[in-house]
Amino acid sequence: MTRWLFLAACLSLLAACAGPAGPGPGNGPTPEQAWQIHKAKLASLKDWQFNGRLVFDNGVEVWSLKVRWQQNANGYNIMLIGPLGSGQVQLRGRDGDGVTLRNADNESFRADNVESLLYQQTGLRMPVSGLRYWILGLPDAAVAEEKYTQLDGQGRLLELKQSDWHVEYLDYQQVTGLSLPEKMILSSGEIEVRLIIDYWTYRPSA
Question: What's this model's pTM, rounded to 2 decimal places?
Answer without folding.
Answer: 0.82
